[in-house]
Design goal:
Strands 1, 2, 3, 6, 7, 8, 10, 11, 12 and 17 form a ten-stranded antiparallel sheet that branches. The protein has a seven-stranded mixed sheet with strand order 4-5-16-15-14-13-9, with no helix packed on it. The N terminus is likely disordered. Helices cover 8% and strands 54% of the residues. A hairpin with a 6-residue loop joins strand 11 and strand 12. It is mainly beta. The chain is built from two helices and 17 strands. It starts with a strand and ends with a strand.
């Protein structure tokens, strides 16, 4: 992923623009001119960032979004504002210290939910040294948070979403103490969305505890009459680290009909 921020200086912007005009692919053809499609609105106080995506075999663009919260930081959100499908480039608005998005607080009528909560399994067998360090460790701090990614239509209605949660303890020095992990899948049955293949991983090692889901949602022509639409979350991952950071990685894409009617939204929230 290549991410840039719109607060660059004028000279830097001019240099990048000059390179974009002069650069040509190996075929000698000029690069396509920007063709932006607006899919959302930047919230007040947000910072615009440009993200370079990757094309998949179905012609869709997959965007890798990474967010992070240090101890004491409560929330950060990223909302897609516009996209250039031909160049597979998007702009997103990043807002920090926000409350949980009201649209995600409850599942509206006409939606289905699947969720689970469980203790994580070790990613590898704990060493004797790690056990001894933990037994003599200094006091731990308990933390909790979640990462939620979703796609919404042009009217702001949520088509589907994936949420992963992590609850862990840390002290900035020793191995993390695992608590629990969880996932939640939400999809709009009223608009014809269906839950497809999915996979949840709930693990921990000395450095961090991780909750991660890969999910596919499909729609057989109800959302986009006459065409199938698929949304892939690969993956929606949240980490709780030994330094107390809450970190997320989210990669998702839309394939099929009416893809330009959907926009992505990401939120990383620390609740403890």
């Amino acid at each position: 992923m290549r991410t840039t921020t719109k607060r660059a200086g004028a000279a830097a912007v001019a240099a990048v623009a000059a390179l974009a005009v002069c650069a040509t692919p190996a075929t000698g053809e000029p690069e396509p001119r920007p063709a932006w499609v607006t899919v959302g609105t930047a919230p007040p106080g947000s910072t615009l960032q440009t993200v370079q995506g990757t094309k998949d075999d179905g012609g869709g663009c997959a965007f890798d979004v990474r967010l992070s919260l240090a101890p004491g930081e409560k929330a950060v959100r990223a909302d897609q504002v516009r996209i250039d499908p031909a160049r597979c480039v998007t702009e997103m608005a990043v807002t920090r210290d926000i409350a949980t998005d009201p649209a995600t607080a409850t599942a509206p009528a006409g939606t289905a939910v699947e969720s689970k909560r469980a203790a994580p399994t070790p990613a590898a067998r704990e060493s004797r040294e790690a056990r001894k360090a933990r037994e003599g460790a200094r006091a731990y701090v308990r933390s909790r948070g979640h990462y939620r990614t979703s796609w919404r239509d042009s009217a702001g209605r949520e088509a589907n979403a994936v949420r992963t949660d992590v609850d862990w303890s840390w002290n900035g020095q020793d191995c993390v103490l695992p608590g629990w992990g969880a996932y939640s899948y939400v999809w709009s049955t009223a608009d014809g969305w269906q839950l497809g293949a999915n996979d949840w991983r709930n693990v921990h090692d000395c450095d961090r505890q991780t909750s991660s889901s890969a999910v596919h949602y499909g729609n057989d022509g109800i959302f986009c009459p006459g065409a199938d639409t698929d949304v892939y979350y690969d993956r929606t991952t949240v980490h709780g680290t030994r330094e107390g950071r809450l970190e997320s990685e989210g990669k998702s894409r839309v394939d099929g009909g009416c893809a330009d009617r959907l926009a992505f939204h990401h939120e990383l929230i620390r609740s403890l």
